[in-house]
Amino acid sequence: MTEQTGEGPVRQQLALLPIRVSGRLTAGTLLLAAVAWAVQGVWEVRLAAAGEPASGPPVQEGGVHRPLTALEDSYHLVTSVAQGVVALCAFFFLAWVWRVRDNARIVSGEPPRYGGVWVYLGWILPIANLWIPRGIVVDAYRSTVPGRKLPVSVNVWWAFWLLAGTTRGLGLLRDGSTDAAIARAYSEIVPLLCSDAAVIGAAVAGAFAVRAVTAVQTERIAVGRCPAPADAEGPDAVRVPASGS
What we know:
Layout: E1 2-4, H1 8-15, H2 20-50, H3 70-108, H4 118-124, H5 132-144, H6 152-168, E2 169-170, E3 173-174, H7 178-187, H8 189-225, E4 238-240
Antiparallel strand pairs: 1-4, 2-3
């Protein structure tokens, strides 16, 4: 056990950002995104079962768009809802990453491994997006509880995310237009569903990863709220568990 005394721990506690609600919102929207993507997959199966109309794909030579069928129109609606959920999910996720990153800096007393700009650029910069987003989350976890084993969900989340990215271009952001996805459903349903499964896996595993990282930071915040033991050195002493205990 390591004892810290004086006003330092008190200031640290006051500076820590509340994380429980942010974590719940982020995990919840990730699961909602998984459901939305699963519904999208159901519509793709329906399109494949219906078969491509005799008039051909929605977008034809010369960029001509034929009138859509009722099923194709409903798929446009489903994908619009899914994209809205994904946008909401991205907002909450990035806000959560900022909070856990800042809390980890306060707890460890050391600057984060990656600068703040990477919270955004890390997702869109080629090559860097293969490891930096995961690295930010891992750094926040290990800075909060050094020596504690990284949750399996973090690696599972990132493995699914990379798989989704290689099969669909940008992970949760669908490549091409909705009409192009309709054409794929008619001609390449198996690869399309495999890609959907990777996205759903990334979202579900991501929710568990968010919960795991949120839990350790909530634990550290709770420690700071506990009253000092009677044998502490001084009236303001706060007992903080040693790393990994």
